[in-house]
Task: inverse folding
């Protein structure tokens, strides 16, 4: 685990850090509780905080409250509290402040390792539940909700020096595939497209039905168009099998690049306009819609 240790004593920090590192954990130690809180807030890879009650400027209970506010259903965080004077703070007060467990300070190495193993089991279960909640069951790509969260984050981080392009992909004549070959074959086609999208290494998700989207941070339109052309060609050049009979299919793709002032809705709307143009233009092609709402075909 990635652990933040908070204690005013340099000797305690050194001793406990040694225990944690020897158990295979990554440790960042602080004497200042406010600095520790800022670090945890800025680094989502931190999964555990081990803090003394005797810390400043935020005391141990204040730190617990603040840490618990950072943790939510998207970010599990274990908070372990230790003190050499437990009798001064009733256990229920410590737990009500947001702590998950309490240890006497300094903790024995064996007890500390055991408590952390227990915390790790809970964290792994929480992380698995988060992944399950974010995953489309048919394709194992991100589901719509998770993709929209990623899109909002990508738009917030977009800038002229770091472009962002969104791609929307729709399977052509999908209803016809289901009607002719059955929903099992339709599901095979959806999974096949998902695998092609996964191999791009971008942020891929299923919007619903036969429609997908890619978020491409760091890609301008030119680079994204190359990826889109490859996706379109791969889909057109392969087939899924129905009782050894090949079922061929194509996709249409719409692209839109982030411009200053764009929100997620605006960016996705332009990609949707481009996708509609690709469909209207004959399908099995890629279209781009600019910020000026000018649409053109690129393949």
Result:
């Amino acid at each position: 685990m990635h652990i933040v240790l908070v204690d005013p004593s340099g000797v305690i920090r050194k001793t406990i850090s040694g225990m944690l590192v020897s158990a295979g954990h990554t440790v960042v130690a602080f004497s200042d509780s406010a600095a520790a809180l800022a670090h945890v807030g800025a680094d989502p890879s931190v999964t555990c905080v081990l803090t003394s009650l005797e810390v400043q400027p935020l005391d141990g209970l204040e730190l617990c409250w603040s840490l618990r506010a950072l943790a939510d259903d998207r970010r599990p965080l274990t908070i372990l509290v230790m003190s050499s004077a437990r009798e001064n703070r009733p256990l229920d007060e410590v737990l009500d402040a947001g702590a998950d467990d309490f240890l006497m300070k300094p903790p024995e190495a064996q007890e500390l390792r055991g408590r952390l193993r227990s915390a790790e089991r809970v964290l792994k279960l929480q992380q698995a539940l988060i992944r399950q909640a974010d995953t489309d069951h048919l394709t194992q790509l991100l589901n719509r909700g998770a993709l929209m969260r990623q899109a909002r984050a990508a738009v917030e981080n977009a800038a002229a020096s770091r472009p962002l392009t969104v791609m929307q992909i729709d399977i052509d004549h999908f209803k016809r595939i289901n009607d002719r070959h059955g929903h099992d074959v339709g599901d095979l086609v959806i999974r096949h497209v998902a695998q092609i999208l996964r191999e791009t290494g971008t942020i891929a998700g299923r919007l619903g039905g036969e429609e997908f989207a890619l978020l491409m941070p760091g890609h301008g339109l030119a680079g994204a168009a190359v990826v889109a052309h490859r996706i379109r060609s791969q889909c057109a050049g392969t087939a899924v099998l129905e009782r050894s009979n090949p079922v061929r299919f194509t996709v249409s793709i719409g692209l839109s690049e982030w411009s200053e002032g764009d929100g997620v809705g605006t960016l996705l709307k332009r990609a949707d306009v481009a996708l509609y143009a690709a469909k209207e233009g004959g399908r099995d092609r890629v279209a781009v819609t600019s910020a000026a709402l000018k649409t053109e075909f690129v393949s």
